[in-house]
């Protein structure tokens, strides 16, 4: 009878334990689900461009020779899965969903790995892991590969937990598969071993950390990595605050990239803080519509990009915008150079946006074999295959052909040797080839005006507008011409020849009565009088 | 029962079929009446008997591809899903050995939409002359103006193993270039690691030395260098190099010298011998190399131009002076071996003398010292005994063909060619017969032939070596920690 009661009590205790574990599991699942939803919402609505940036700064090819390169470094499985999934960041909401899911899985795995030590502690660890990975994911240079490696390392414990301390022997395998993830796996093995048996746990802990730290030391020569890098390959996620300004700049870049010029202009106006990137796109989007002179004085920071030179120390964001400028004005040599440079400095020298641009630039230059090099690469991607079919030489769609032809009309046909990337030389040569290249013309004239080089402006205006019988009577140019004419005491015939807008003439007379008045802050006269170039 | 006895005509039948496609043999095939659109192009090439399998891909959408390599001494058949053919290494090498100094044909068939198509066979010649088994090259994006994540690799051309000799991760992402052997010897070579704390890393019988090959009066550190046959001397040029960009997208980057001189370094005594005849301020001297007997020094020379705009008239002639290996001194007479002719493609770069001293291989371009981006640049070979120039029409292409190296037996050359896409240089090999006849070039075989399609690096400055180099990337990283050995000037 007593035995029967005891058995019943044990059964009840077991049921209660199971029920408590079940409820803890439900709580963990609920936390993970809520976290996934919250992260997904945050990423989708507050941080969407971060994903597109990451997608552009890598490439994943369904090709055996390409895939085999993942074995050159530790954590091949995590890196391969991470890069495979990153390509889907191209699609709206896919990136947020994938990254949030990876973090949620890491949270669940962390909970499951710690739950035998402490149920409450497991929930706390789960939350800490979630917060740490979430804030790390906000870092522009923390890719999905690192997140998958960490998640893979933590989740591996679930597969080897039955091995107890002997699981430490599998740490080299974990390092091979998940790189930095092996460190987290060793921590879980050690923590559980300490919980099971304190004395044995100390030995297991020592073994775990010895193996986890010795494996990269042994493997670093094979992987040709310094020890510190090998240990945390591909990267140890480091939490960072949301990079709001960077996100805003990327939003402008994305809008421009997809041809949404109005949106790019609007976003550039709405930034918390103007930057060379926001300024650059504000002007480039306006230039695409022939409105650069109308907008030149309307933005607080006047950075056209024409005075920027790129080299080995230039940030990639600047190389990126210069690539867009050269493409917009039609210089394929410089477009290719900037694209190559961007590619060279991208993580693992891979940048799918620049490969696409290299294909385009070579199509414009009629260098078909070079274009095919990049088209064949892009053809092995999931996301850009349709674009490739649209741009394949000899089979181009009407829309693609029209775009390429429009660029060909702008192409530089001169063969001069430039000793630098002086934009004045580039723009002058483009205009010599095609004087109707309005984007180049406006950039040239506006650069002259920002530098207040009135003689140079007048010479350029004469050469590309007056001598061709195509005066460009934008307010900005009319105002600048008035300054030049007034400064050189030009005769009335000259005024009549150049100044054709009476409204601007009237305003000029008014301005001269109130020189420097903020009422005229939108005019070139005001800029000329009050701003240092 | 031996394999031979199974074949009544003494033929070996070596059949390798992919498991997935073992039932897929061509049947009722239509004849395509054309050569197969394969990459790399192996039609009509001559390959060394010890070359790795010539794996290839069919540039066509097909379900199954089937290849039959057949010669007088055997057959290999292989079928695979997709469009890639990869030969088994063992069977391949046996097959080549059996066809030494013979030719064989590969017939390719493809199954498209359920229908087999058989293409015309391609023909391949197998030379009994072996090629040096190792090849080193630098992997770099084809934008030479800037760099990131460079590597110098060593590849065994008999199989597909590759080793890293210098890696950006181990040397702080510095620039590195030109792994150069002394007469193909794996125990005598050097490479450069540039930038602060860099220098020439000299492989002296496996011991690495870091050399600061510069004295105060030199215009720069060493740029292009070659060993003397004994290994004691190193001849090198010091160049002030200016990069420029062509407005024409097809020409891309130009690099030219505004100053350059040639010096000889004594590696035994750490001295640099200045020979005034090779350091004339009105002449640009560059690309020096020794003859295999060590008695001559060849280099390229051009008249100095005051303006960069005159670069299209900056043409280099091939010159020679006597060299005394016991003193490191050069003679007083300069012989012009190949004279540049204004307005013609005759500017000479990268002279390399064949190991037997008979031929001198060089690159010709319209002008300048950077033929890598000159589409017109080709290789030529002069017979030093007769002065006859071989224009190597079968080896050259309509894209840049440049930077070559000889195999130690003098029967093979390797060079960097951009013939496939105009952008990315790849190592191409040619056979050179005893009479100086040069065969059609073929590219370094890869295990997965799509590597050349997806790869975004140029195989730069390929050099053939007789054996595996006696150091690796970790050794170079350790050598970088050494203080650079200084050199004194000896006038």
Domain tally of chain A: 3
Summarize the main sheet of chain B.
8 strands, mixed
What's the total helix number of chain A? 28
Q: Say what oligomer this is.
A: heterodimer
Strand content of chain A: under 5%
Outline the structure in words.
The complex is a heterodimer of chains A (533) and B (491). Chain A has 533 residues and is mostly helical. Chain A folds into three domains: 22-231, no CATH class; 255-408, Serine Threonine Protein Phosphatase 5, Tetratricopeptide repeat; 446-530, no CATH class. Chain A is 69% helix and 0% strand. The model of chain A has no long low-confidence stretch (mean pLDDT 93). By secondary structure, chain B is mainly beta. Chain B has two domains: 4-127, Immunoglobulins (Immunoglobulin-like); 134-479, TolB, C-terminal domain (Neuraminidase, 6 Propeller), CATH 2.120.10. Helices cover 4% and strands 44% of the residues of chain B. Chain B has helices at 89-98, 451-454, 473-479, and strands at 12-15, 30-31, 38-39, 46-48, 56-58, 64-71, 74-81, 84-85, 103-112, 115-118, 122-127, 134-140, 151-156, 162-167, 176-182, 185-193, 199-204, 207-211, 222-227, 233-246, 253-266, 271-273, 283-290, 296-303, 317-324, 329-330, 335-338, 347-353, 359-365, 378-383, 389-390, 401-406, 412-417, 426-431, 442-443, 458-465, 488-490. The longest helix of chain B is centred in the first third of the chain and has 10 residues, at 89-98. At the A-B interface, α3, α17, α19 and β1 of A face β20 and α2 of B. β1 of chain A pairs antiparallel with β20 of chain B.
What does the secondary structure layout of this molecule look like, with pairings?
The complex is a heterodimer of chains A (533) and B (491).
Chain A: H1 2-46, H2 48-56, H3 64-67, H4 76-86, H5 94-114, H6 119-137, H7 144-160, H8 171-178, H9 181-196, H10 198-223, H11 227-231, H12 244-257, H13 261-270, H14 276-288, H15 292-295, H16 316-329, H17 332-345, H18 352-364, H19 368-378, H20 385-391, H21 398-408, E1 417-418, H22 423-433, H23 438-450, H24 454-466, H25 475-487, H26 492-498, H27 502-513, H28 524-530
Chain B: E1 12-15, E2 30-31, E3 38-39, E4 46-48, E5 56-58, E6 64-71, E7 74-81, E8 84-85, H1 89-98, E9 103-112, E10 115-118, E11 122-127, E12 134-140, E13 151-156, E14 162-167, E15 176-182, E16 185-193, E17 199-204, E18 207-211, E19 222-227, E20 233-246, E21 253-266, E22 271-273, E23 283-290, E24 296-303, E25 317-324, E26 329-330, E27 335-338, E28 347-353, E29 359-365, E30 378-383, E31 389-390, E32 401-406, E33 412-417, E34 426-431, E35 442-443, H2 451-454, E36 458-465, H3 473-479, E37 488-490
Parallel strand pairs in B: 1-7, 2-10, 4-11, 22-37
Antiparallel strand pairs in B: 3-5, 5-8, 6-7, 6-9, 9-10, 9-11, 12-13, 12-36, 13-14, 15-16, 16-17, 17-18, 19-20, 20-21, 21-22, 23-24, 24-25, 25-26, 25-27, 28-29, 29-30, 30-31, 32-33, 33-34, 34-35
């Amino acid at each position: 009878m007593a035995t029967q009661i005891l058995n019943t009590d044990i059964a009840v205790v077991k049921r209660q334990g199971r029920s408590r574990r079940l409820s803890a599991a439900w709580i963990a699942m609920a936390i993970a689900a809520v976290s996934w939803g919250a992260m997904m919402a945050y990423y989708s609505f507050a941080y969407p461009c971060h994903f597109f940036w990451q997608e552009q700064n890598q490439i994943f090819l369904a090709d055996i020779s390409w895939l085999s390169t993942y074995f050159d470094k530790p954590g091949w499985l995590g890196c391969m899965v991470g890069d495979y999934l990153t390509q889907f960041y191209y699609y709206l909401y896919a990136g947020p969903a994938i990254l949030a899911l990876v973090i949620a899985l890491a949270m669940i795995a962390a909970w499951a790995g710690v739950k035998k030590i402490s149920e409450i502690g497991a929930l706390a660890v789960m939350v800490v892991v979630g917060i740490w990975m979430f804030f790390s994911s906000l870092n522009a240079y923390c890719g999905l590969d690192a997140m998958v490696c960490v998640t893979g390392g933590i989740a591996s414990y679930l597969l080897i937990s039955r091995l107890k301390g002997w699981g430490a022997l599998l740490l080299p395998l974990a390092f091979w598969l998940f790189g930095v993830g092996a460190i987290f796996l060793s921590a879980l093995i050690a923590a559980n071993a300490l919980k099971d048996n304190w004395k044995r746990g100390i030995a297991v802990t020592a073994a775990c950390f010895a193996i986890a730290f010795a494996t990269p030391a042994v493997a670093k020569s094979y992987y040709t990595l310094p020890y510190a890098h090998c240990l945390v390959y591909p990267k140890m996620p480091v939490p960072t605050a949301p990079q709001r300004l960077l996100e805003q700049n990327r939003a402008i870049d994305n809008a421009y990239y997809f041809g949404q010029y109005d949106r790019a202009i609007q976003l550039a106006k709405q930034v918390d803080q103007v930057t060379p990137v926001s300024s650059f796109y504000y002007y480039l989007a306006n230039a695409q519509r022939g409105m650069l002179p109308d907008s030149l004085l309307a933005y607080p920071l006047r950075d056209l990009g024409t005075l920027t030179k790129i080299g080995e120390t230039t940030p990639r964001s600047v190389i990126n915008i210069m690539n867009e400028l050269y493409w917009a004005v039609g210089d394929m040599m410089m477009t290719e150079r900037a694209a190559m440079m961007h590619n060279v400095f991208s993580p693992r020298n891979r940048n799918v946006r620049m490969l696409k641009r290299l294909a385009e630039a070579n199509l414009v230059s009629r260098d078909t074999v070079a274009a095919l090099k990049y088209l064949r690469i892009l053809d092995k991607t999931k996301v850009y295959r349709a674009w490739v079919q649209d741009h394949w030489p000899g089979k181009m769609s009407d829309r693609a052909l029209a775009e390429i032809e429009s660029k060909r009309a702008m192409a530089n046909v001169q063969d001069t040797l430039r000793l630098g990337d002086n934009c004045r030389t580039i723009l002058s040569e483009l205009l010599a080839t095609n004087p109707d290249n309005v984007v180049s013309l406006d950039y040239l004239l506006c650069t002259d005006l920002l530098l207040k080089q009135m003689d140079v402006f007048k010479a350029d205006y004469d050469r590309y507008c007056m001598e061709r019988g195509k005066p460009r009577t934008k307010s900005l140019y009319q105002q600048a011409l008035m300054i030049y004419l007034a400064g050189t005491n030009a005769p009335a015939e000259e005024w009549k020849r150049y100044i054709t807008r009476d409204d601007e003439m009237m305003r000029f007379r008014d301005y001269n009565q109130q020189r420097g008045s903020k009422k005229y802050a939108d005019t070139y006269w005001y800029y000329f009088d009050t701003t240092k170039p | 029962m031996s394999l031979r006895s199974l074949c009544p005509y003494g033929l070996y039948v070596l059949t390798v079929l992919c498991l997935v496609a073992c039932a897929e043999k061509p049947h009722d095939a239509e004849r395509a009446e054309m050569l197969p659109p394969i990459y790399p192009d192996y039609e009509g090439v001559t390959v060394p008997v010890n070359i790795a399998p010539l794996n290839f891909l069919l540039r066509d959408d097909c379900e199954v591809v089937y290849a039959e390599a057949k010669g007088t001494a055997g057959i290999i058949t292989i079928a695979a899903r997709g469009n890639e053919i990869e030969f088994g290494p063992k069977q391949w090498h046996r097959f080549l050995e059996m066809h030494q100094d013979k030719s064989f044909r590969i017939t390719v068939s493809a199954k498209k939409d359920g229908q087999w198509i058989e293409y015309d066979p391609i023909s391949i010649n197998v030379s009994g002359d072996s090629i040096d088994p190792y090849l080193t090259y630098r992997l770099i994006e084809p934008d030479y103006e800037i760099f990131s994540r460079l590597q110098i690799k060593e590849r065994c051309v008999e199989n597909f193993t590759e080793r890293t000799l210098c890696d950006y991760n181990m040397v702080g992402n510095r620039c590195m270039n030109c792994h150069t052997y002394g007469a193909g010897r794996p125990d005598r070579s050097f490479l450069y690691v540039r930038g602060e704390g860099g220098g020439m890393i000299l492989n002296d019988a496996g011991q690495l030395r870091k050399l600061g090959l510069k004295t105060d009066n030199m215009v720069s550190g060493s740029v292009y260098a070659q060993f003397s046959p004994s290994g004691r001397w190193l001849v090198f040029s010091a160049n002030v190099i200016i990069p420029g960009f062509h407005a024409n997208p097809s020409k891309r980057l130009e690099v030219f010298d505004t100053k350059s001189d040639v010096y000889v370094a004594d590696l035994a005594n750490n001295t640099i011998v200045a020979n005034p005849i090779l350091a004339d301020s009105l002449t640009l001297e560059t690309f020096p190399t020794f003859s295999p007997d060590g008695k001559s020094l060849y280099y390229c020379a051009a008249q100095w131009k005051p303006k960069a705009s005159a670069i299209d008239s900056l043409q280099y002639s091939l010159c020679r002076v006597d060299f005394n290996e016991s003193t490191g001194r050069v003679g007083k007479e300069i012989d012009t071996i190949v004279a540049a002719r204004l307005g013609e493609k005759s500017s000479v770069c990268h002279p390399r003398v064949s190991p037997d001293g008979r031929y001198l291989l060089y690159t010709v371009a319209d002008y300048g010292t950077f033929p890598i981006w000159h589409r017109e640049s080709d290789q030529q070979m002069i017979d030093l005994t007769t002065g006859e120039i071989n224009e190597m029409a079968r080896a050259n292409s309509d894209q840049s063909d440049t930077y070559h190296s000889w195999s130690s037996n003098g029967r093979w050359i390797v060079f960097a060619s951009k013939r496939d896409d105009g952008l990315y240089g790849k190592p191409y090999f040619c056979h050179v017969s005893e009479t100086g006849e040069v065969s059609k070039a073929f590219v370094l075989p890869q295990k997965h032939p799509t590597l050349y399609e997806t790869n975004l690096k140029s195989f730069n400055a390929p050099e053939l070596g007789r054996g595996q180099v006696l150091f690796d990337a970790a050794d170079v990283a350790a050598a970088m920690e050494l203080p650079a050995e200084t050199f004194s000037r000896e006038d």
